[in-house]
Amino acid sequence: MDPDDSRPDAPPPPPVPDRSGGRGSAAAGPGSERTEPARPEFWRSPIRGPWLTSVLGAVLLVGVPVMFVTGLLSYAAYNPDLAAVNDQTPDKGWLGFYLFSWPTDPSWLYRLTQGVHVTLGVVLVPVLLAKLWSVIPRLFSWPPVRSPAHALDRLSLLLLVGGALFEFVTGLLNIQLHYLFPGSFYTLHFYGAWVFIGAFVVHTAFRIPVMVRALRSRRLRTEMRTSTAATLPEPPDATGLVPPRPAPATISRRGALGTVGLGSLVLFAVTAGQSIGGSLRRTALLAPHGQQPGSGPNGFQINKTAASVGIRASDIGPQWRLVVRGPGHERVLTREQVLALPQHEAALPIACVEGWSTADQHWSGVRLRDLAAMAGFPGQAPEVFVESVERGGSFGSTVLRANQVQDPRSLLALRVNGADLSPDHGYPARVIVPANPGVHNTKWVTRLTFGAAS
Amino acid sequence: MKAVRERYGASPLHLLLVLCSFALALYAGVRLLKGDTVGVAVWFVAAALVHDLVLLPLYTVTDRALQLLLPGRGRRTGTGSGWVNYVRVPGLVSLLLLVVWYPLILRRVPGFQLTTGLAPDTFLGHWLLITAALFAGSALCLLGAMVRGTRQRKGQSRPEARKG
Most buried residue, A351, A401, A428, B9, by most Cβ within 10 Å? Predict the structure, then answer.
């Protein structure tokens, strides 16, 4: 039952049993001028082969398109086509061809799409790493270029692998607020995704037949019952993944896939709670927003505290005023005057581009469409330019689309969960709009200009 | 058609699709590289190179060292698959968590508390406890396998199926 015995065309065993994992003597032979990893014999793992690669590839084939689509949706959710101030990638050109008015229904829409985007990204890390491990011999395949097609393929693979790792690394760093990368996250992650996806489509288009054939070559159920002792290499084939001189198996395919699955499961367990919220938030032991920031009515997740964006006590003290403007109209209101306007309630979540979100909070304040009426738009409300007292920063101001202003749940909120907003949640007043990305629910609002973006 | 295939090395369809993807990559790429061109290019290429030429060899060598340290196929424990996996599976999962969440675990994010209002010092402890739980779980699995192995050997004095 030695692995080699089962293979009809196995090469003759080496004269000296090589237990050091391929670092044997650089014996003369047809491959002697190659560097070590370029010799197929260098790669010893008996579980490497088209079947294992295809199982991992099939998972990514489902996961990556979901990541890409939810990523594109997140960009659309910012309504970048509405105003320059909403657009983090104004040079996008045709890459924004698909943009549409982001809806306000259901109110948890952005919670869902962005929670899936980030959590799935985290969960796919072990699958991606295992997939790359499974095909590593191909990186060193010899000769390095066999034909023009092979040369183009390798260049495409650089975009594929470089792009995948670039997207995962920038994404993972961004959700941990570790801004190491050379430029704006939005620019890098958005354009990087487009560089990657072209290579991904090419790769899948030409590998799907190979993948299907490989998946059919072995039954998953059989593999899931095969022990390490009974684990044999796949028959050698044209993919070059099967090692010609395999070492004895130290783990079965079941064990390898199980380890990857366990990795994904553990990552899910320590991450997903920050997007589900409620009592499950505590389970997100390693995710950035797994803790509860204090207790009481304002004890829910904060994207950026007042201190971190330079809000001074004088900005939001008694001198604070709300300016409501429209063509030919301007009203300046104190907080008491805003509180004296008809107050409405809405139960809405906060959902961040970083993937975390909160359950519905109970907000109360003035409807944006009532403020639009005050600014000279008694009928259909137009879009509104919202300005915060924040100085500088990417999201000190934003434009909300007419459908967002029109929604009866869209508020200029003054209170949450029965108490005044805390400074960190945007006291004296903040915007809250259903299904809106968190950074567009502007805090510390001081001016609303209706009909400004057109 | 056949001549193209022989000379080019693949179907002409391959050429068209690859060129299409390169054009798209260039269209997005010039936008990606605007600004810190060298920095972004280095990040993009280094992402692949660092993984393939540093990270992967590093964990492979670590794994080889582990196998040298814990040789054999677990014949004495009767676990069949060798007990190296009882170390490397929890070890791998623990390292995976560290790789994904290292900025928080190793406190590399200077403004975390100021920005979020959350404590920055809980992650290392959580990771260590999760690691402890993973190894404890693995120990229980190994114990179970050892007990099963002992029972099997007692129940039937059948010789081992595998040889050399």
Answer: A351
Q: What is the mean pLDDT of chain A?
A: 91
Return the domain boundaries, chain B. 70-164
- Check B10 against A149: CB less than 8 A apart: yes
Across the range B52-76, mean pLDDT stands at 82
Q: Mind telling me how many Å the CA of B109 is from chain A's nearest CA? A: 5
How far apart CA A364 and CA A342 sit, in angstroms, is 10
d(CA A420, CA A322): 16
Question: What is the ipTM metric for this complex?
Answer: 0.90
With CA atoms as reference, the chain B residue closest to A1 would be B162
CB contact under 8 A, A133 and B35: no
Q: A237, A242, A167: which is closest to A199 by C-alpha?
A: A167
Distance between CA atoms of residues A206 and A197, nearest Å? 14
**Where in chain A are the domains?**
3-269, 307-450
CA–CA distance, A374 with A387 (Å, rounded to integer): 17
Q: Residue A33: what pLDDT? A: 61
pLDDT for A390-413, tens place per residue?
976 778 899 999 999 999 999 999
A255:B24 CB<8 A: no
In tens, the pLDDT along A109-126 reads 999 999 999 999 999 999
Tell me the one-letter amino acid at A87: D
Higher pLDDT, B73 or A351: A351
Rounded to an integer, what distance in angstroms lies between the CA atom of residue B110 and that of residue A308?
A: 12
In whole angstroms, what is the distance from residue B10 CA to residue B18 CA? 11
| Res. B73: pLDDT tops 90 | no
Q: Could you report the per-residue pLDDT of A237-280, keeping only the tens digit for each?
A: 888 899 999 999 999 999 999 999 999 999 999 999 999 999 99
* CATH entry, A307-450, from 3.30.2320.30, 3.90.1170.30, 3.30.420.10, 3.90.420.10: 3.90.420.10
Q: Which of A132, A165, A195 sits opposite B32 (nearest CB)?
A: A195
Contacts 24+ apart (CB under 8 A), A70-73: A70/A113, A70/A114, A70/A116, A70/A117, A70/A120, A71/A117, A71/A189, A71/A190, A71/A193, A72/A98, A73/A113
The β-bridge relationship of strands A445-450 and A322-326 is parallel
Q: Are A150 and B9 inside 8 Å of each other by CB?
A: yes
The rounded percent of chain A whose pLDDT value lies above 90 is 85
Q: Give the pLDDT of residue A35.
A: 72
